[in-house]
Design a protein that fits this description.
The protein is mainly beta. It contains one helix and 13 strands. The chain has a single domain, classed as Lamin Tail domain (Immunoglobulin-like), CATH 2.60.40.1260. The strands form three sheets. It has a six-stranded mixed β-sheet, with no helix packed on it. The longest helix is centred in the C-terminal third of the chain and has 7 residues, at about 145-150. The relative contact order is 0.24.
Length: about 190
């Protein structure tokens, strides 16, 4: 497990987040748009979907649950195609139709009572221009939320409601910011 690095430079302009609904993914240089669609706690996994209109690569993208991170293997995703990334554990239960990959190590415990996970276009975890998609659940923890809020991919003070028996959280529309389109399942 590695610690999330903090970078103080950015080649992307900062934006101020608003409390309104905005797209939750950032277009990559190849025209694809990636978003987190599902987080599973009991069999640690994250599902990322291409919500854009172009095929794109996840090469160079990172998942971060502060203070740990993992680089995503290079995957090409067509529009509406998803990849399930196992983050450890003894079971891997990818959703039907998703590509599947297991990474070398996890990114810490996936606790249903509270946590966060962010998708970043590069290992600059405090730079708003690097945040592609983000979700926070259970409690209003600080973590990487300031960068996600400034990037406009999450709303201040919000989180997905979960319980200690929640197995996963899933977004019904990954193109929408905030917890209103996320549900927890036990």
């Amino acid at each position: 497990m590695s610690a999330c690095g903090d970078s103080t430079t950015s080649d992307a302009p900062s934006t101020t987040a608003t409390e309104t609904t905005q797209p939750s993914a950032v277009a990559t240089s190849d025209g694809a748009e990636f978003a987190i669609r599902l987080v599973r706690f009991d069999a640690p996994m994250v599902v990322i979907v291409n919500i854009g209109e172009e095929r794109g690569s996840l090469a160079g993208h990172w998942l971060c649950q502060r203070p740990a991170y993992v680089e995503i293997p290079d995957f090409e995703l067509n529009p509406d195609e998803s990849v399930a990334i196992s983050l450890g554990g003894t079971e891997f239960l990818p959703p039907p139709g998703a590509l599947a990959v297991s990474v070398a190590h996890g990114i810490g415990p996936m606790d249903p009572r509270g946590g966060e996970i962010g998708l970043f276009s590069r290992p600059s975890f405090d730079v708003p221009g690097a945040v592609v998609s983000y979700v926070k659940w259970g409690t209003d923890i600080e973590g990487r939320s300031p960068a996600a809020i400034e990037a406009g991919v999450w709303t201040a003070g919000e989180f997905v409601a979960t319980t200690d028996t929640s197995v996963l959280i899933e977004s019904s529309d990954p193109s929408v910011v905030g917890p209103s389109n996320w549900t927890a399942s036990a």
